[in-house]
Amino acid sequence: MSSVKFLNGELAKLLVEWRLKKGLKTIKDAAFFLGTSPEILSGLESGTRQYMDAPLIDGILSAYGAPQYIRDDAAAKARQIRFGDPQRWQESGPSWFNRMTQLEPRATAIDIFEDTYITGLCQTVQYARAIMETNPDLKEESIGTALEFRSHRRRIVVEKADNGARLRIIQAEHSLSVIEGTDLYAEQLERLHEDNAREGIDIFVMPTKVLHPSMEGPYMILSFDDPSTPDVVYQESVLGAQYEARIDQVDRCRGVFSATLASAVPLDEWSSKKC
């Protein structure tokens, strides 16, 4: 079992990513460039350093040329490591800009429960736009950017031919019935069937009148083979995104998902009954 905490590991990967983008192939090269010792940088990049000083992380990323929003996010995580719980993270940025775009491609298995919306990975552009337009805080420019990020997520997780991740998705029936009779319904349902036919993807529907253990809200469980990346539960709300990597909490959510899955209906079976 890896001793690297969730946020430590995420910051470590970020430092390596931006070092390589700077063209510094080795820690020794980077240490010389930064004017620090290889031992300090190695501790940061391995994620084993107990505390990651926020100004230090910000300074390194700045020297590597990382944009301000990346640096701000990293500094906030460094403060959480020192003063909070490095196995948990709450971020308040827009839902289209979050760590999911970096976590999802590395996952070997993703379990998703969605109660209100069609899960983002399976949304059509028209459906996604319609949902975003209900948000008074999103301007047209932001919507366009959000749609681009959503399409990017889909390409690297769902449509990528060599992606080995297994996806199990439970959609609450309400998420479909609420758009039934609209211009969005047929195309969105067809998209779900197309994705369900992909290898390694199984989509289920939770009937509206069935009580189940996931009624508290949507969540996603990401599992990894990489020992340096702990399995994590991800949740979104109006207050932002939360990541939970404590083993007992991840295991509890796995149990909830399994119990919910037992009451769900495969998408093809649900559709045949609707006809």
Automatic annotation (TrEMBL):
All copies of domain DUF5753, residue ranges: 98-268
Name under which the protein is recorded: DUF5753 domain-containing protein
